[in-house]
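Exercise 7b. Backbone tokens:
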């Protein structure tokens, strides 16, 4: 997939079955962050569905300022420019929509159980296989655009998962024992994400919440979280129609989490 900056390589384009995802595209052998590039393009008016792809990120990042590292030339690193209607709260369900689509696609292709953890990770029993970072901009209280950055561990080996990633990450290769065609996988992912996103735009997240909950690894689990400096715990019961994680506190109250850090404790 190594090419000069420009449209998606031909081996991706000829596999696309999308209406508009990936039809406009930028490809970089190396960049600081596909999200940074996509955010600049979105602010300049780039069309919805435009995708930015890189073979390597120097400063890839995840949620809560965590770094996202990936060996050059082995994985999928891409960002989508989206323009959903609504206010800033719609950025959260867009993340869940993308996670659901990625989970569905990888489950089918890898023939393993691929789940989601709220709000932005795609996981297997062997570890995290994909992550999502959505960043948005608003104007007059309305969303101007959402950039959804996606990293999928495709052909990374066990040796590539160094330090604190060892034992906590997985790739398509480590899960199946074979090398994967990244161009074909990217085309498949763009097609599925587009289908789920179109349904979200047409019908809202409430119609997709059950599909997300069916794949939610934290469902029924005890978790802890922090809100306004206070640490609390409860049992996850699902997600709300606008994408919040619903946690039963055990005293008859339920709370909805939108941006809090959540960790499973039992």
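Sequence design result:
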């Amino acid at each position: 997939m190594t090419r000069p900056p420009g449209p998606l390589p031909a081996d991706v384009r000829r596999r696309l079955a999308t209406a508009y995802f990936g039809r406009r595209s930028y490809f970089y052998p190396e960049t600081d962050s596909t999200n940074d590039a996509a955010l600049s393009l979105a602010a300049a008016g780039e069309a919805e569905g435009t995708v930015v792809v890189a073979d390597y990120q120097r400063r890839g990042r995840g949620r809560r300022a965590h770094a996202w590292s990936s060996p050059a030339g082995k994985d999928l690193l891409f960002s989508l420019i989206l323009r959903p209607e609504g206010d800033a709260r719609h950025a959260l369900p867009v993340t869940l929509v993308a996670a659901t689509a990625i989970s569905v696609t990888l489950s089918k292709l890898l023939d393993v159980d691929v789940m989601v953890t709220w709000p932005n990770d795609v996981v297997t029993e062997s570890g995290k296989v994909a992550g999502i970072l959505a960043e948005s901009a608003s104007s007059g209280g309305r969303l101007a655009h959402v950039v959804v950055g996606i990293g999928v561990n495709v052909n990374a080996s066990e040796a590539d998962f160094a330090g604190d990633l060892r034992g906590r990450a997985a790739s398509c290769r480590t899960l199946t024992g074979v090398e994967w065609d990244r161009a074909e996988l990217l085309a498949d992912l763009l097609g599925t994400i587009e289908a789920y996103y179109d349904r979200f735009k047409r019908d809202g997240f409430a119609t997709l919440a059950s599909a997300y909950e069916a794949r939610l690894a934290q469902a029924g689990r005890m978790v802890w979280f922090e809100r306004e400096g206070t640490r609390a715990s409860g049992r996850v019961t699902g997600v709300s129609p606008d994408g919040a994680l619903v946690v039963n506190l055990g005293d008859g109250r339920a709370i909805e989490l939108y941006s809090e850090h959540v960790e499973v404790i039992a």
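Instructor comment: The first strand starts at residue 25 and ends at 28. Residues 10-213 form a domain with the BirA Bifunctional Protein; domain 2 fold (CATH 3.30.930.10).
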